[in-house]
Write a structure and sequence with these properties.
By secondary structure, the chain is of the alpha/beta class. It folds into two domains: about 30 residues; about 160 residues, Glutaredoxin, CATH 3.40.30. It contains six helices and seven strands, in the order ααβββαβαβαββα. A seven-stranded mixed beta sheet has the order 2-1-5-4-3-6-7, covered by helices on one side. Helix 4 links the parallel strand 4 and strand 5. The chain is elongated. The mean pLDDT is about 90.
């Protein structure tokens, strides 16, 4: 077969049609790969790192201390959507995020939803003083005096926020600073409350 016979008009059209079929197949396959879950559609803007774990753990069974010294567990909020936020006063992204968490609690806090910041500072007094000094009034922060929260939940660092459903099962988590009063964050919280 001569080289000129390979490059004919009809072979060129056949090649283009074959390429078109593969391209259409690729578009079809891509369109079938929608979000893995309903939560994934909220992973935009400041929530772009929002993830769900394949085998999410239940809420921690640790005992925490409220700022006034009472012993509590996360299960206290059974029946509510809980946004648990691990933070510390020595963590600049945590400090930057705290006002938006306060505004979120003020806007959405209800029998259906609560923000629970858990301080990993040396003492509960450090977190309490910082919250008071910075006019954070809507949040009731807790303190992890055992310092086991990060290990039990395998948190990658601070801040990290973990969302729990009404049964205390983890729904999603997000490492790093988030604008919790942003449009996408409010839409996520509203979605979870409606479930």
């Amino acid at each position: 077969m001569k080289l000129s016979e390979l490059f004919t008009l009809s072979n060129g059209i056949r090649g283009m049609l074959l390429f078109g079929v593969f391209a259409l197949f690729g578009v079809f396959v891509q369109s079938c790969n929608g979000p893995k879950s309903a939560i994934d559609r909220f992973a935009v803007g400041s929530l772009k790192k929002l993830t769900q774990l394949e085998a999410p753990p239940a809420g921690p069974s640790l005992t925490f201390e409220t700022m006034d010294g009472q012993q509590v567990q996360l299960s206290k909020h059974q029946g509510q959507i809980v946004l648990m936020n691990a933070w510390a006063t020595w963590c600049p992204p945590c400090i930057a995020e705290m006002p938006s968490l306060d505004r979120l609690q003020k806007m959405r806090g209800s029998p259906d939803f609560v923000v629970v910041p858990i301080s990993l500072d040396r003492t509960a007094a450090e977190a309490k003083d910082w919250l008071e000094d910075n006019d954070i009034r809507s949040l009731q922060s807790w303190h992890d005096s055992s310092y086991r929260l990060t290990g039990q939940l395998k948190l990658p660092g601070l801040p990290t926020s973990v969302l729990y459903d009404r049964d205390g099962r983890e729904v999603a988590r997000i490492p790093g600073e988030v604008e919790w009063d942003s449009e996408e964050a409010l839409a996520l919280i509203d979605y979870l409350i409606a479930q």
